[in-house]
Amino acid sequence: MSTETTHERGAQRLSLEQLQKWEALKYGMFIHYGMSTYTGAELDDGSHPSTLYAPDKLDVDQWISVARDAGMKYAVLTTKHVAGHCLWPTKHNDYHVGTSGNKTDVVEAFVNACEKRGVLPGFYYCSWDNHNKFGSRTFSDTAADERALFPERVQLAYTTREYQDFQSAQIEELLTSYGKVAEVWIDIPTVLPRFYRQELYNQISGLQPEAVIMMNNGISDGSSYPIDKAWPADIIAIERFLPNSHTGHVKWREIEGKKYYMPGEVCDPIGREWFFTEEDQPRSDEELLGMYLVSISRGTNLLLDVGPDKHGLIPQKYVGALQRLRANLDRLGMA
């Protein structure tokens, strides 16, 4: 037997069987969609009116049909990104789809579409919020020239207890209103203090005990894990990178004196941008195939981001690229 299979069960919350079941999904769709789709700014400043969000052909079923047909087994939706605009009609502020140019509850439509098509749903939620600050200081509050001159000032981003209470209230709303979810993806947890990350982790695991929890540890190949910025979590992010070429993804990690089994998840866009832009083209068929094969062979899942356009549809240029990737995987017997 291998070292891993004879290893102790680990100190992690989820069992090895539960985590390995998630690993067996292998391939998912990250869906970046929201206010940034309409402003063209990934790190939107949160100042635009809710009505600017106005898809005229919104079809969430199309998104999940594309994911299913591509061979993806799960999908993770950006319920709230940096702009702070929410894709569900939250009761905790007025910056959401219910006050927008299209009042469809996208989160509800997403979960329903996943259920109909056998794709497991996951929710992304960003802790960096430029609209709902409650006295917090975000990365956007430090000017770009200051960041260049004084990189240490980036560390001055923080969240207040009032913002943390707001985030907890929205997380409860999301995780109690739409049924079971397979993954909860918390972005930019570095702005949350350690005590609150633990509080948030406990809340999520209490509301969705079977969900895998990601606290995004940032842009890296996953070789090192920044406990001070992203712990606790169930899985490790490998953002904009592939797993280490020498070691692959190392799943057993020692954290604060205990051993944890922590699977990895590569996340990267199908093109170069997280949100749809007219100019962004899909990567070549060869590169996409390589991303898939390297991610899986080095022991991680691949969460490939595909952004719907301003109409609310995944455009044909991405659909075609995903179909060709599926055909290539079929030929290799990998789908």
Give an overview in words.
- With 335 residues, the chain is an alpha/beta fold.
- The chain has a single domain, classed as TIM Barrel, CATH 3.20.20.80.
- It has 11 helices and 10 strands.
- The strands form 2 sheets. The chain has an 8-stranded parallel β-sheet, with helices on both faces. A two-stranded antiparallel ribbon has the order 7-8.
- Helix 5 links the parallel strand 2 and strand 3.
- Helix 4 runs parallel beside helix 5.
Number of strands: 10
- CATH topology heading: TIM Barrel
From the N-terminal CA to the C-terminal CA, the straight-line distance is 27 Å
Structural class: alpha/beta
Number of domains: 1
CATH homologous superfamily classification: Glycosidases
Total DSSP helices: 11
Low-pLDDT stretches are 1-6
Q: Per DSSP, what share of the residues sits in E-state strands of 2 or more residues? A: 15-25%
Order of helices and strands: HHEHHEHEHHEHEHEEEEHEH
Q: Do you know the CATH architecture? A: Alpha-Beta Barrel
What is the C-alpha radius of gyration, as a whole number of Å? 19 Å
The largest beta-sheet arranges its strands as: 5-4-3-2-1-10-9-6
Largest sheet: 8 strands, parallel
> What's the CATH first level?
Alpha Beta
Q: What is the approximate shape? A: globular
**What's the pLDDT, averaged over the residues?**
95
Specify the helix fraction band.
Answer: 25-40%
